[in-house]
Design a protein that fits this description.
This protein has 132 residues and is an alpha+beta fold. The protein folds into two domains: 3-49, Multidrug-efflux Transporter Regulator, Chain: A, Domain 2 (Orthogonal Bundle); 62-131, ACT domain (Alpha-Beta Plaits, 2-Layer Sandwich), CATH 3.30.70. The protein contains five helices and six strands, in the order βααββαβαββα. The longest helix has 16 residues, at 116-131. Residues 4-49 form the Helix-turn-helix domain.
Length: 132
C-alpha cells in the first residue's frame, strides 16, 4: 500500500508541515510511526481530505500466444479456423484470434491475444484438432 511522508502530505494538501504533524499528533490524521518519521497511507489521506475513495487496482492478466502448425493443408486449416471461431461466437470474451496460412509450405500460425481462460479454451480446441 502506498504511503506518504508528512512532507509529501503537506505538499499535496497545500498545508504547512507543522500543521500536518499536529493533525497526526492530535489523532485527526491516522499515521504510523517508522523510526522518527510518520507515514500516512493513501486511503487514510483520502478519507481525511474528503477525496473520493480510491478502489484498489483490480488484478488482470492477459496472454499472447503464437501456435505454429506444420504439415496442414488448406482444407484442414479452414476446418480448424472455423471450429475455433465458432467456439468464440455469441459470448463476450475480449479475445483476438488471427490465422496466417502459407499454403506453399503447408504452414499455419495462430495468434491468440486475450484473457487467460478464453485463450486456454482456444488452445485446447487447437490441440484436440491437431491430434486428430
Amino acid at each position: 500500500m502506498e504511503q506518504y511522508t508528512v512532507d509529501q502530505v503537506a505538499d499535496l494538501l497545500g498545508l504547512h508541515v507543522k500543521t500536518v504533524r499536529n493533525y497526526v499528533r492530535d489523532g485527526r490524521l491516522p499515521a504510523v510511526r517508522i523510526g522518527k518519521q510518520y507515514r500516512i497511507s493513501k486511503l487514510d489521506l483520502a478519507e481525511f481530505a474528503g477525496l473520493p475513495e480510491v478502489a484498489p487496482a483490480r488484478r488482470h492478466a492477459e496472454v499472447s500466444s503464437i501456435v505454429q502448425v506444420d504439415g496442414i493443408d488448406r482444407r484442414e486449416m479452414d476446418r480448424l479456423s472455423t471450429m475455433v471461431m465458432s467456439s468464440l461466437a455469441g459470448e463476450p470474451h475480449g479475445l483476438r484470434v488471427e490465422f496466417v496460412y502459407d499454403e506453399g509450405r503447408a504452414h499455419l500460425k495462430i495468434i491468440v491475444l486475450g484473457g487467460l481462460e478464453a485463450s486456454a479454451q482456444v488452445l485446447r480446441i487447437v490441440d484436440a484438432m491437431v491430434r486428430e
